[in-house]
Structure formats: C-alpha cells, structure tokens
Design a protein that fits this description.
34% helix; 632 residues; globular; Rossmann fold; 3 domains; binds adenosine-5'-monophosphate-propyl ester; alpha/beta; GMP Synthetase, Chain A, domain 3; 5-stranded parallel beta sheet; 20 helices; 7-stranded mixed beta sheet
Length: 632
C-alpha cells in the first residue's frame, strides 16, 4: 500500500528538466512557447524561414503551401534531393570524416561509416540500380536486415528518384508478396540472413517464396553476408558484384518537393494494409526540424534510435532526420536482451550515447529483468531519453527516468504515426514533463481533442485526437487508393483524424489513450484486426474469427482470437498450434494471437458486423455498453 502511494505521488508530479539538459538545450521552454505561437499564427512564414535556413534547394519554391481540400502541397515547384541534404552538404562542409553510423551486432562486431564513405556507398548502389534500368518513379522493395547496406540502399533509391518501399524483415512471404504486388516493384533487394538471439533467420527464401508468381519483378539483388557463397539464379544478382565497378559519383536527381520519396505499408482497421506515401520537400524539412529540436541535437552528440527501418521510426529517425542534421547514429542488429539483458546498456556505455530513443515495450521488458542490469553500466553520457510507438504507462516512465536516466535526463514521449512522418506531440527536452502524457503539439501543429462532430471536449474528458491543418510531412495519399486517404480528412469535420483516443488537461498536455478503431498495438506495431481475421479463416478448419487486443504486461496489447470451427472439427491443442502457424505464414510472427478461444457464436449487429467491442468488454469484465444493435 505504502509502495502504491509512493508511485502515485511520483505519477502526479511534474518533472522539471535537469540542469544538464537546460544548460545545453537549443530552445528553452519560453522560446518554445514563443515560437509555437508564431508557428500557428503564420505557419507558412514559419516553415518558409526554416526551409531556407536548414535545407539546400536546387531551386526555390514559388509558393509555400496550397490546400485544395483534401489534398495539399508544400514548397510548390521547389527542387531538392534529400540525399544531398543528408550527405553531400556535410561532406562539402568539412564533415567528410565525421562518423555517420556505427553498426554493431549481438556478438559485439562493429563497423563504422563516415559521411564521406556513406556518400560513396550510396552513389555506387545508385549507379548499380541505374545499370539495372531503375529510374525516377520506379518502385524498389527493400527486405533487408539492419545493416549499413540497408540504409544506404534506401538513400540510393532517393538519390535517383526511385520510390523505396521497405518491408520489415519479420514479415512473412505472403505479407511481403502483397506489398511487392501492390507497389508493382521492379526490383527487390534482400540479404541472405539476419541474426536474432544467436540464430540465423533466412531472409532470401522468404523473398523466393514471395516473388514466385510475380512476373513483373525483374531482378532480385542479394546481399551475401560474411561467409555466404550462394549460387544465384539468372534473375538474381549479388549486391557487391552489382556495385563493385560502379563510380562513387552520382549526380543527385533533381526532385520536385512533391515528388514521391517512399511508400510504407501500415495496417488500418479494415482491408489490406495501406501504402502511405510521403514526398520529398516537406518530409525532409519536418524530420530535420523535429530531430534537431525534439532530440536537441548538438554537433558532438551520439544518437541511438533502436527502431528498424522497416517502420516509420526507422525512416524518419534512423535515416533521414539524423543524417539531414548530420549527427552520428548507432544502429544495432539483433535482440535487445541477447546475449544478456545488459546488451543495450553496454552499448550506451561503450559509445557514450547521449540521446536514446526506444519503445515502452522494451522498457517494460527491462523492468522485468530488474534494475540490477542497467545498474552495472555507466550511463552518465545520457541526456535525453525518447519513447515512441504506444502509450507509456507512468510506472514504465518512472522506471526509465530513474534507472536509465538516473533522474538526470529529460524524457520526450513522442506521439506520431506512419502517416504523420514525424513527431506531432511531445515536450521538447527543456519543457516540464508529466509521466504518461505525451505533452504539447510541436511547431506548426494544431492538435485538439474533440467529439464526433469536431467540437473540443472539456479538459480531461476523453475524445478523438485530431490535427486541424496539414503539416509539411503529412502523408500525401495512400498508394493506388486515394479514397482511403480522403477518409483521414473526412471522418471528423475536415480535420485529420488520427484514430487515437486522448485527453487534454488544463495545461494543454495531451495524453494518448490508445486506438479508437479496430487496430491493435502489439509491442508498438500496428496490426489490423481484419488482417489477422482473414489469416485465421485461411485455415481450412476455421469458419469464422474475430480478434481483439487485450492488455499485456510487456507488449502493451496482445492478440486474442475467438474462432468458430467448421462443423465436425475436433478441438485439439495441435489444431490451435496449426491455426497459429497459419497466421505466422500469412502475416508473420508479430501478428500471431497469444490466445485462441473456440466459440459457437460471435456477437454481431443485425447487419452482420462483428461487435469486437462487446467481445472485449466481456473479456475484461467491463460493462457491455450500448448493445441495442446486437443481433440476439
Ligand atoms: O496509437 C498511436 C501509437 O501508435 C500509432 C501509430 O503507429 P505507427 O503508424 O506504426 O507508428 C508508430 C511510430 C510512430 C498511433 O496512432 N503511438 C505512437 N506513438 C505513441 C503512440 N501512442 C501513445 N504515445 C506515443 N508516444
């Protein structure tokens, strides 16, 4: 009881930034408030000034912003190449020998790439892709482990104006196939394997399976890792053979600010995943500015974002944001807790990491291992700790603050999405923090919590999170499905509807409560109920299925499935395992339900829609709510 009270006292507290942060901070609280006011009052002028100051453009724009509801454009007719901003300008400005990336793996192997070396690698890959006939606008799918070549391949696409679509290397062959097919990618770039928990995971065979029936895929480029010597088929080419004799120079393609940069697939509440499309100029500017101010980047900082480029966090805060500001980043392949739960803390100690950005699920995992693990290491280099992907529960926030930050770091709890491209709601490091509350909207972002009609709810009342106007890195469309894009801007008034429930307190701090729709957030990964259900019914014994997310100590949410079997099928443990295997095959391990319950019936509306909310309420022992539309 006494312990509980102590935690409650800590949760209610406002945490002021420590001296160490305040002394260095690029912007103070007062400056942030002042600039925020300006950014809302005259948004176009605000972004225009920053675009001029912070980025290199081949040609200046004619107009900053145009909004023909629901579509919008930023920096109209401005010309740039994001890789010029990420690489060339640093090399030209005396940072050729500054380290861009330090890669490490579970065995402690290490590779370092300077900005100069990275530029040459990117150019060679870019020339290699050109030699295969890839040109501006073509789609390239990247299914690779977390190695420098993966990041460099993304940049090589951007160099020549090809649109990359990175697929997380944990997705199954059929999930990969869907993405290759939807984007009609000409080329797939992969690797032989990745290693996790000491075990090799074969990636190449997943690609083989995925492309079997896809005639439009012209070539598979294969990065063979140390010791590999695969015999490649006629349509396959070795990564290093492809780039070996290429020139280290490649003139960057002149890109319009609104030319597509990448597609990234993400789950929605219905149907197949959506291909979120981001363009060049606004995305470059917004990820640059958020990296600089939210992580308070200084010239000598070491930055470590623990994500994977298969997700938006990797795109924006492992590749484009950090390189555009010119910081040194760590990238670590493999599991956080292997060979032991000290791995991440030893990396922070070894490389003197200053800014560390991870997900609440990882923090909860380490809470379970106990504070003795981080306690063994010198973490005094840390100044800023970030959180992303799901709501961070106050207990995890405090554990992070005390055991990793040693009460001497600021925590930035960054709320954003694949669609938003960059951080939307957070406190900047010099701003007072409240555990469990993401904080305030970033520059230029007008966020609010409203009811279904778009009217603001009272302080601390639950409502829908909306953004009132487009921002530079907002998604531009859903690949091939503009109607799905329009939906974001038409659900609630003409605001951007994020799909999250939230509250806003008297000080304007926003707390994210979780999804408002049929999307489950498992360990910070978005999984659509519809996708899992269709993977379940792909099993021959399954007649119907419904899935819900239920609270989970480490993952945040876990998936529970309710399954109706076809007539005459016997329930066995083997069958359960078989059904789970079917989901693994259709989607990948991250979408496999933790629990399957066989039922005779599912709650449905009279029009036949499954009422997942009723299943969830029953599961959690909560009131059922309005069930007037329930069938029986
Ligand atoms: O529900 C919110 C949650 O993750 C969703 C976006 O998922 P995704 O597009 O995969 O991007 C994740 C990484 C940016 C949001 O709708 N979410 C993300 N960050 C937070 C969060 N929920 C609460 N607090 C956060 N900091």
């Amino acid at each position: 009881m006494a312990e509980q009270n102590e935690i409650l006292l800590k949760i209610d507290k406002i945490y002021n930034p420590p001296e160490k942060v305040l002394k260095k901070a690029l912007i103070s609280k007062e400056k942030f408030d002042e600039l925020y006011e300006k950014s809302i009052k005259d948004t176009e002028n605000f972004w225009e000034k920053l675009a001029e100051k912070e980025l290199h453009w081949f040609e200046k724009w004619d107009k900053v912003f145009e909004w023909n509801y629901p579509t919008y454009k930023w920096f109209i007719n401005g010309k740039l190449n994001i890789t010029y901003n990420c690489l060339d300008r640093h090399v030209e400005n005396g940072k050729r020998n500054k380290i861009a990336y330090i890669w490490t793996d579970e065995d402690g192997n290490e590779k370092k790439y300077t900005y100069g070396e990275l530029l040459e690698l990117v150019n060679k890959i870019a020339n290699g892709l050109k030699s295969l006939g890839i040109k501006k606008g073509d789609r390239v799918v990247i299914y690779m482990p977390l190695v420098i070549e993966q990041l460099a391949t993304m940049l090589a696409c951007a160099r020549i104006g090809a649109i990359h679509s990175v697929v997380y290397a944990g997705f199954s062959a059929s999930a990969l196939k869907m993405r290759i097919e939807d984007a009609k990618a000409k080329i797939v770039i992969t690797s032989t394997w990745t290693k996790r928990r000491g075990k090799k995971i074969d990636l190449k065979s997943v690609v083989d399976e995925a492309v079997k029936e896809l005639d439009f895929v012209e070539k598979i480029v294969v990065l063979q890792r140390e010791g590999d010597n695969l015999t490649l088929e006629e349509n396959e080419i070795d990564f290093y053979k492809l780039i070996k004799n290429q020139s280290p120079n490649c003139t960057p393609e002149i890109m319009d600010a609104e030319d597509p940069l990448f597609i990234l697939y993400t789950s929605g509440s219905t149907g197949k995943p959506k291909g979120v499309l981001h363009t060049t100029g606004g995305y470059n500017l917004y990820t640059h500015i958020t990296t600089k101010y939210v992580f308070d980047i200084h010239e000598d900082d070491i930055f470590w974002c623990t994500a994977d480029p298969g997700w938006i966090t990797g795109h924006s805060y492992m590749v484009y944001g950090p390189l555009s500001v010119g910081v040194t980043s760590i990238i670590a392949e493999g599991a956080p807790d292997y060979p032991d739960p000290g791995r991440w803390w030893s990396i922070i100690e070894k490389y003197r990491v200053n800014i560390f950005y991870t997900a609440p699920t990882a923090i909860r995992l380490f809470m379970k291992y106990g504070e003795q693990w981080p306690a063994k290491y010198d973490l005094s280099s840390l100044r800023i700790l970030g959180s992303v992907g799901e709501p961070i529960n106050p207990e995890a926030w405090i554990w992070y603050y005390e055991n990793i930050g040693r009460k001497n770091c600021s925590i930035v709890d960054t709320w954003w999405q694949t669609e938003t491209g960059g951080h939307m709601i957070t406190t900047v490091p010099a701003y007072p923090q409240k555990p469990g509350k993401a904080g305030k909207p970033f520059f230029g972002i007008e966020a609010d919590v409203v009811d279904k009609n778009g009217n603001p709810v009272k302080p601390n009342e639950v409502g829908y999170l909306v953004i009132k106007k487009p921002w530079p890195s907002a998604l531009r469309t859903c690949w091939g499905e503009p109607e799905r894009f329009n939906k974001y801007w038409s659900e609630i008034s003409q605001y951007y509807f994020a799909g999250d429930m939230a509250t806003k307190d008297e000080d304007g701090y926003i707390m994210i409560l979780g999804r408002a729709d049929d999307v489950i957030n498992v360990s910070g990964h978005r999984i659509g109920t519809a996708e899992v259900e269709s993977a379940l019914v792909a099993h021959e014994a399954v007649a119907e299925a419904a899935v819900i997310g239920i609270p989970h100590e480490i993952k945040g949410e876990s998936i529970k499935a309710f399954v109706i079997l076809k007539q005459g099928i016997e329930i066995t443990d083997e069958l359960k395992g078989d059904i789970k295997q079917c989901v693994r095959k259709e989607l990948g391990s991250l979408a496999v339900p933790d629990e399957i319950e066989f039922v005779e019936k599912l709650p449905k509306t009279r029009s036949g829609k499954i009422m997942r909310r009723v299943l969830k309420a029953k599961e959690l022992g909560m009131p059922l709510g309005d069930i007037s539309t329930l069938e029986d």
